[in-house]
Amino acid sequence: MKSVHLNKYSAFVGIDWADQKHDICVQLAESDEREFSQIGSSPESISAWLEELHLQCQGKIAIAVELKQGPIVYALQQFDYVTIFPVEPTTLARYRETFSLSAAKDDPTDAQYALELMLRYPDKVKPLELEREELRTLKRLVESRRKFVNDRRRLANRLICCLKHYYPQILELFAHRDTDLFCEFILRWPSLQFVKAAQKRTIRHFFNKRGGPCVPRTELRIQALYQARELTDDWAVLMPHQLEAMALAGQLLHLSKAIRIYDKEVKALFNTMPDAELFGSLPGAGACLAPRLLVAFGEKRERFSSAEDVQQLAGIAPVTQRSGKKCWVHFRWQCSKFVRQSFVEWAEKSVNYSTWACAYYQRSRAAGKPHQVAVRALAFKWIRVLYRCWKSHTLYDEERYVQQLQLRGSPLVTG
Fold this sequence. Notes:
two-stranded antiparallel ribbon, 7 strands, five-stranded mixed beta sheet, Transpos_IS110, 3 domains, Transposase_20, Helix Hairpins, alpha/beta, 415 residues, Transp_IS110-like_N, Nucleotidyltransferase, domain 5, globular
């Protein structure tokens, strides 16, 4: 039985998407019969199929698909008579297991199950609501940027491991091993032999022309490098590792350049957002985390009815399972990992900028909680504070919040 909310649609479709083809299950509004078919994954195939279906049903089409974003979703969004109903993959998998104890799986059947979930549970499978184009752009920018940052960390770790095999002295002279300065030094002098063959004034000029905090340590670095002893003179070790180090250093330089381009685009777009000032006022958020927190909340105030909704979305709120006399509280696995990472990283940063956050973290650590547990607990509290600010369009004020804690006699400010 279809819900009254679905009465405006003339056709209902379930799609099981794949890379090369999509399996389709179609049910017209005035019929209980279902028709199965298969279409290609190309934009032309999707467009031709939808136009034919629209001519047949002469109305709006509701489509259930196991995605919130992706090629098939982007293709369907172009048609104003199509409404997309995202189905959670885990929900679909559990629904399938209900009717197939053998765990058998078939693409047309999955398309039918997606269709059934949309029709039977409209209060659970809700239509996809798009945010403003600017906000969706910002979301993809910050997510892509974070992936490049992860790639940079991975390559930096590989570079460190490589240098330990033949050039360990250089690691003692640079505190940060993913900077342009470090990578350019490796490309210029990929081993200790190259350093000792160079003139001191050349190395001195390399550091001094870049300025900054590296200048005062230039002479110490030069002296240490000239006095250093090679770990090995085995060419079978030196040559392959030199090539690997130079390749990794080159990739790191390109990644760092790409990240700076992202930073520029994110900053420009973030500053145009109505809530930019609100999220920019958060202690420790800075230029990187403030945009990520903004896209986590979005701009639609009706999206969340309470701070608990945000905590659950972010995976910060724990999950409680009860059965008889047993009760188990555990980490939340099903959530947006990127959103959780954004809140946890911000909570960790806020310890250095907020007095009450620092006090809360220290009390948690003193109580024996590990660092990550203490930071997640702090993020849990921060979400409640930020939710109130976001809901009321109010900038966060550290002094005002501390005063409220004092009025309530909170141990975080009374000692």
